[in-house]
Amino acid sequence: VTAATPARVVRTFGWPALFLAPWIIGFVVFTGGPMVASLVLSLTDYDVISAPRFVGLDNYERLLSDRNIAASLGNTIFYTALHVPLSMGLALALAMLLDKARGRTSGIFRTLFYLPSVTPPVAIGILFLLFLNPQIGLIGQVFGALGLRAPGFTTDPDWIKPGIVLMSLWGLGTTMVIYFTALRNVPVQLYDAAQIDGAGSWARFRHVTLPMISSVLFFTLIVNLIASLQIFSEVWTMYFGNQDGGAGERAALFYVIYLFQQAFQFLHMGYASAMAWLLFLVILAITIVQLRLSRRWVYYEGAD
Amino acid sequence: MAIQDQPMLAPAGRATAEANERRRARSGRLQSVLTVSALLAVAIVLAAPFVWLLSASLKPRSEVFSRELLPDPVMWENYSRVWDVSSMPVWVTNSALVAVLAAVTVALSSALVAFAFAYFRFPGRTALFALVLATMMLPAAVTMVPQFLVWDTLGWTDTLVPLWAGNLFGSAFYIFLLRQFFLTIPRELYEAATVDGANPLRLWWHVALPLTRPALLVVAVFELKASWTDLMRPLIYLRDVENFTLPLGLKTLLDQFGQGGEMQWEVILAASVIATIPMVVVFFLAQRAFVEGIATTGSKG
User: Fold this and answer.
1) Cα distance between residue A113 and residue B41, in whole Å
2) If both were cysteines, with which of A159, A173, A280, B96 could A114 make a disulfide (CB 3.0 to 4.6 Å apart)?
């Protein structure tokens, strides 16, 4: 009775296949196919103009000796290590503040805080290139008012990355909105019960709020990690393009910027593919480690 | 930062929200004054760059970096100069065209795929859906090179096509999101329509889509924003200035008129305002639908 006659196959898969077709085609042409293609390309020397030449593992060997790989990985990890905890912490603090306000007020402020997130990265880059400039920017005035001299956030190689981290914090609105929604959904009875048990505000935060929003914290941790390892647009605007060779050339050389240069400026498609795979493996490893670690601290409602 | 910019919909829990509201109402007046003051302080810090940008874009060239808050005289000409010295009208048109095409195509294609996962029962459904979710974690930078080679082979580099046509095939995050909404539709509605002789395509179009309009709007608005602000893809695919979108045009203006260039910052700043305003407007217009969209998500799926 269960023989897979053509008619039965069509009846079972016909309509679903029709609805799923866009995704399946897209997966083959733009995701799965390209993944395989880039693995193959990473074993070749390819400049788009002449045919790819098989070079074995040469590209991967080059990764190890290329000083810019080490530098750009270092820069990217530096940025991620500062950006992710700072932006998550600040976003949570803001969301909690917002959660304390009454409905109307919190709605207005939520809108305001979210606005930087709809600004084009190029405009953000331009804005902060000027803003963070110690001579002409507002930051100079702010430091001046405190009797200090602003560091060269856009000119001093040691301060360029901290400047970029500052800029990134302007866009924490999305994360904040996510936390705010999560906070509003923590059952109020839990707080009442904790209060009756004599829990202070820190204890309530530590033992009620944090566990109840831990799955959301985990989600934003992963998403923020993956995004910050791929930082590109704002930094490209500020320090690359025709400003190549400026102060940001090494200090702001992030991994994806270097990948972009290799692929589309130097047309080293094979080498860029090897770089892409290294990035993929790094991100995969980080995600798996975080998933493992999450079992210790993430609480899913109804899971236990 | 595409993934980061997407909204996450949590289950609404209206009752919880209301209870929390009552709790808040109990807190004292002093505390609420303190809260609002703190919020105001943060708002001022976050708004400062916007205010500075707007003000500086209206100042005469020699005073762009002056400390005055209000421009005097107000140089509206800065904006018309942007129009004169660049291909701004073409860039705005290109950006608008790409953004609308990207938003409409991704909303429809993602809804089609999401409906398949919500409505049909077929072997392998769970595994396939897991694969869709897995692609969400795939970094965009990883497929950048081969995707370029695909469009290059098709002969579509230096056209606007690669900037939106990929959206014809759905996007994992939106598929996930829309599926959540489709799951909340009672099956009886479909059954009633089926009795009336509707095929699945009609169920999708006449039953599912009208009921999930707020969610479709959320998807469209987010894609509109993602597309309007995107720099990387235009940078990869576009060569001719007349094909540029606004972000790429803006970057060109920075290189031409900024540091090491002609030092006409007022032109760059006015252009930055032009690039920013449309999304601020869209955000305010769509805000209500957006918030409603989040509030009506009833299920975890």
Assistant:
1) 11
2) A173
- B221 touches A: beta carbon within 8 Å: no
For residue B135, pLDDT beyond 50: yes
Cβ within 8 Å of A, B 18-57: 19-25, 27, 31-32, 35-36, 38-39, 42-43, 46-50, 52-53, 56
**Cα B168 to Cα B11, B103, B245, B270, distances in angstroms:** 29, 10, 20, 34
Q: Compute the nearest-CA separation of B13 from chain A (Å).
A: 6
Rounded Cα gap, residues B199 and B211, in angstroms: 17
Which burial class, exposed, middle or buried, applies to B153 when counting CB atoms under 10 A from its CB (0-12, 13-18, 19+)? exposed
- Asked if the C-beta of B152 comes within 8 angstroms of chain A's C-beta atoms, the answer is yes
Indicate yes or no: CB of A31 within 8 angstroms of CB of B13. Answer: no
Q: CA B141, CA A264: separation in Å to the nearest integer?
A: 13
Name residues 58-117 of chain B within 8 A of A (Cβ): 65, 67, 109, 112-113, 115-116
Global confidence as pTM: 0.89
Residue B64 has pLDDT above 50, yes or no: yes
The continuous run of DSSP H or E covering A51 comes out as: none
What distance in Å separates residue B83's CA from the closest CA in chain A? Answer: 17
Name the residue among B143, B229, B276 with its Cβ closest to that of A31.
B143
Which of A74-83, A230-239, B54-63 has the least mean pLDDT?
Answer: B54-63
Cβ pair A105, B36 in contact under 8 A: yes
For residue B57, which phi and psi values (nearest 5 degrees)?
Answer: -70, -15
Phi then psi dihedrals of residue B13, to 5 deg: 55, 60
Q: Do A109 and B39 touch (CB under 8 A)?
A: yes
| C-alpha span between A87 and A120 (Å, rounded) | 19
Which amino acid is located at B110 in the chain?
A: S
Distance CA A132, CA A128 (A): 5
Is the preceding peptide bond at B73 cis, omega within 30 degrees of 0?
A: yes
CA B32 from chain center: how many Å? 33
Q: Is the pLDDT of residue B4 over 70?
A: no
Residue recorded with tokens 């009921």:
B211
Band (B244; pLDDT cuts 50, 70, 90): very high
Q: Do B145 and A233 touch (CB under 8 A)?
A: no
> How would you classify the pairing of strands A44-45 and A53-54?
antiparallel
Please report the number of interchain residue pairs, chain A to chain B, with beta-carbon separation below 8 angstroms: 293
